[in-house]
Prior knowledge:
Elements: E1 2-7, H1 10-25, E2 29-34, H2 45-50, E3 58-59, H3 67-85, E4 89-93, H4 97-109, E5 112-116, H5 128-139, E6 142-145, H6 148-156, E7 164-166, H7 170-184, H8 188-194, E8 203-207, H9 211-214, H10 217-229, E9 234-238, H11 241-249, H12 253-257, E10 262-265, H13 270-278, E11 282-285, H14 288-296, E12 301-303, H15 311-315, E13 319-321, H16 326-338, H17 340-347, H18 358-371, E14 387-393, H19 400-407, E15 409-416, E16 419-421, E17 433-439
Parallel strand pairs: 1-2, 1-4, 2-3, 4-5, 5-6, 6-7, 8-9, 8-11, 9-10, 11-12, 12-13
Antiparallel strand pairs: 14-17, 15-16, 15-17
Helix pairs in contact: 1-7, 1-18, 3-4, 4-5, 7-13, 10-16, 16-17
The structure holds uridine-diphosphate-N-acetylglucosamine and uridine-5'-diphosphate.
Uridine-diphosphate-N-acetylglucosamine binds near residues 9 and 97.
Amino acid sequence: MKIATILGTRPEIIKMAPIIDEIKENNIDQIIIHTGQHYDQEMSDNFFRDLEIQTPDYNIHVGSGTHGKQTGHMMEGIEKILLKEKPDIVLVQGDTNAVLSGALVCSKLHIAVGHVEAGLRSFDMTMPEEINRRVADICSSMYFIPTENSAINLLAEGFSRKNLIITGNTVVDACFRHLEIAKKRGFEEKSLKDLNINDMDNILTLTMHRAENVDNKERVKSIIEALKELQDMNIIFPIHPRTKNMLEKFGLFDELNKLDHIHIIKPIGYLDFLLLTSKSTLILTDSGGLQEEAITLNVPALTLRYNTERPETVTAGGNILVGSNKHTILKNTNRILNDEKFAEKMKNAPNPYGKGNAAKKTVNSIKKYYDKGLLNINAPEEIMNSFTRKMSQITEDITVDEFESFENALIHMVFDGEEMIFPKDELNLKGMTIIYDKYDI
Ligand code: UD1
Ligand code: UDP
């Protein structure tokens, strides 16, 4: 079996690293294709070094540009490589332009796509990431899903349950593994001191880079107005290149940079960043990955957005959406700083993203699919079976697995009262209402 991984930005490298490791552990052939979307040393190469993963076999060097230019260039490059390498499955992760391009190319070449972190939805169609993840889901054969909530998003859109594999999020694998490595290597305060971070009290780690925030002058200004008032905090701001460019363009960079309590630094390596965030009192961010890492590291997060495709972090109590409104940001920050009980509750929010074995679950299920021939995509040679969709109330003790084999059916949705729950094989359906597809033979 040969597995190809496509990645191109910082979060994809971090979140695919545990899977790349696991593929290697299993002695499976693998190739890594870097689109080159992120190319600065501190946004790309440093992560291959820190996370100890092999350098990519190919780099398409797309660089920066409009969405059309980036996506077109990536598709051309990826197609050429896949025609030559002929992998059995291609893995894409998340919602970047690499995911969109990779998934589209594979679907036309009839190569199976495994979408890592599938099923997330912000329901905001103005976000490029929402389009990317939805298209990738349409083109995929295997879905590696972080939570039941995301699986339910896919069921509600009509995706078959058969290929939805709930794994947790590989960010938890990455976080646990690398925090441990960072501590062992004595990174601790030493490397943070190298970054001129001496005062470890009251740290607020800030990251922002979302187009809808940093490309919008009014929104950035409003966030900066809030930051100016947080003088009791030691704000560490590893700045994303997009954000630096936009702040300079808006003439806001110097104003922010000269504030004593705000420490703007270049993007930092993963080991340093994990140490920094784990020692923070609070995280202020619009990053997707950081919302997940905050709840994994038990640090309260305020998210500078009006929606999130990670609602589990909010319902679990570890994350609050504050948008870009100055008063909402300040009100919630002050509550975390001054209300100990509230802060503790946020810190202790249960992590919805699993136990750190997402990579193992992902690779194990790929092996199973490969062994059963399920990764082959062939045009049909038989007349399709037809099915009827039915609804039923279950009164007896019967599991999903048992029901499906007795009835020659696939359960699509399960309702426990008004709540929709994910039909896991071992779930007892007694008292529940189900919608299922019954196949005619
Ligand atoms: C991309 C992803 C976003 C992800 C983010 C992670 C898409 C549509 N967006 O956004 O989902 O959350 O990566 O960080 O795929 N630049 C540099 N050096 C670099 C890379 C970028 O200077 O190494 C600058 C360029 O001016 C570029 C800008 O940053 O125009 C934006 O980069 P781009 O790759 O278009 O999108 P991101 O904002 O990084
Ligand atoms: N990160 C990092 N160094 C930094 C800032 C962030 O290593 O200076 C990591 C962070 O731990 C997280 C990932 O980068 O795992 C998030 O990337 P980003 O915010 O760029 O993208 P998103 O997750 O929003 O797609």
